[in-house]
Amino acid sequence: MMERKTLNKLPPEVVNQIAAGEVIERPASVVKELVDNAIDAQASKIIVKVIGGGIDMIEVQDNGFGIPKENLPLIFEPHTTSKIHSIEDLNTLMSMGFRGEALSTITSVAKVKLDSKYVEEDTGNSISFDESGIAHIVSAPKESGTTVKVENIFYNIPARRKFLKSSATEFRKIYDILVKYYLIYPNIHFVLYRDGKIIDDIKNINGSSAGEIEGERVKEVLGEHIFNNMLKVFSEGAGIKVGGYIAHPSTHNRASKHQFIFLNSRPISDRGVAGSVISGYSRYIPAGERVDFIINIKINPELVDVNVHPRKEEVRFENPYRVYSAVEEAVKHALESNLSYLSEQIFRNENVSPNFSALRDRLNANSSSQKYESHNYELPIRNFNHGLKEGYTPVKNFSVRDSIVFSSEVLKQTNEEIKKNSENFGDIISVHQIFNKYIVVEYENEICWVVDQHAGAERINFEKLVNRESQKKNLQHLLVPVTVPLNKEEVMFLKENKKFFESIGFVFDISNDEKGIILKTVPAEYAESDFESIFREIFKIDDNISELRKSFDMHKEDILATIACHGSIRSGQKLSTEEMFCLVNQLRKCKNPYSCPHGRPIVWELKLQDIDSHFERTY
User: Fold this and answer.
1) I need a labelling partner for 295 at 20 to 30 A (CA). Which of 97, 107, 476, 578 fits?
2) Helix axes 102-109, 12-23, angle to 10 degrees
3) Phi and psi torsions of 266, nearest 5°
4) In angstroms, rounded to a whole number, what is the distance separating the alpha carbons of residues 535 and 146?
């Protein structure tokens, strides 16, 4: 016989402890809630003291406006807050802490003592709780501000306490949270103690504002080596402002620990925003790679819900696509403008290496007045997929070697010939091909570049295709139109997007039976390409053509990258000296000479001092 169950109404202390499990996960959660309150109290200095990774003791002290004496008992009651009065207030919320749960839940799982002096009162007051949870308030000498001391977290919930990690791990969790506040509140002086020793003493930056990412603070918090390889991001439009810093593409790796997202001064986690940043890098880093970034989003609070997560770590956007698009475009713009300017400066023989932080500050000031003027050499049109074009006569081959070994063929290149070429190509002293795969370029400023010839040619062709719509030149009209067989769905896709393909030089008609297309005009550099192979590769971008049609705007660059690959110099293809000079010269004029359209690196830079160091040479 089934036992009859009796319903029990849980006592308040059990309810609070269950609720605490949502808000207070570990010591770091306590630090976050208390720092939020200190910021809301308009503190200009916040001191955090931690003992035993926060398990034994956490103390957060601020110099904010304090708490009136009559409010002290109330702030420890559940759902008591001065920051909202009705559900409508959530629509315009800008404060950090607002739920009214923090102190009540903390007191249910730890021993808490609070000292505070309100700015309009003459003396301070202290409140603490006995074992039965009854508050005791006494007068206490104190300067303006509030100090909250939390001890012995989860002392009354052994099952929760045993799941805490070591003190070192718990402290690291606390530090990870504080770093976010360091970055987004440069106007606040933060001090961090660990077991009685100062770990951080980060002064506020004069003239800075809450919610702004300051380069000086980024450098201090993350380190100069990271900041010097970052580019500034800024864009504003459609009610969304995006700012911050992103890493140079050359610093990509499989995992990145310095990724920060802020929304209206609030640190958050959002996969969509993080994914949008990486999408902005899609032509600059390989698939699956990550980079460091600090993204700061400002948006009308009515367009975002910050009340969807107990610890306020996640948000919900009213129109996420609009936000994600704004972030992606901001990242793309920062990469295009900064890298284009940077390549101009490096190639002007200014004897500089890619120190991005030094050039970043000059970008807006004088980039328009320093334009690189170079000869407009073009690579001879060749069928890079099938060998030399019929009738093509290569220019004199000064030195053609496959190996890095300095053979007699390389030594045959005379100083006069090097000088002759360097007069045409500025600060390049010489070029050599090794393994029929890489081009070694020697510059006057003691810098050597090793260029992946296929990746470099892909980048050149990709940017030509991107710019072709405005140029309308260098097209090849086919004497005999080429038929490319396709299925009905593929033909439908090309028919719908015919104007796009014509804009990049591919002019075609649909065959009478609608089982393919008839190519009539193509970009000159693709005159002898395998067109069927090109279009087959396009349809491999997305196995579902219907999805490719729906998201065509998102896939345009993927299509251009696919076409660029087919018209490019191949790995294993032997090049003349003149062709190598031309390729490098065209690469120098690219907006992004650092990575191919698929994100692989193009250039490996070696400085003379690096080579000397490898050989332990000091003279």
Assistant:
1) 97
2) 110
3) -110, 125
4) 68
